[in-house]
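Researcher: Here's a chain I'd like modeled. Treat it as a single chain, no partners, no ligands.
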Amino acid sequence: MNKAVFIAYNQALTEAVNSILDRNQIRGYTKWAEAHGRGSDAGEPHFGTHTWPAMNSAILAITDEERVQPLLDDLKKLDVKAEQQGLRAFVWGIEGMI
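Model: Modeled as a single isolated chain. Structure tokens:
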């Protein structure tokens, strides 16, 4: 079964996230280069404004179920290493696709 993985992250982590996708052989994805948001717990806003200059990017990747956990494990390691930057990943099932 295929799964969707949505990854939202500080743009400062772009190279690391790209490397993780490559290492996990995640080829197919859609990327939003500039995404606004803020963390649900203690994260500061990333709005690309004078007051809140940081920006996020977001990726939606569709992959085989067996690739999801290794991907999440690598993303979690990055998040722990760069905790102040901000990174979140969410997974849900794909019921159909063409």
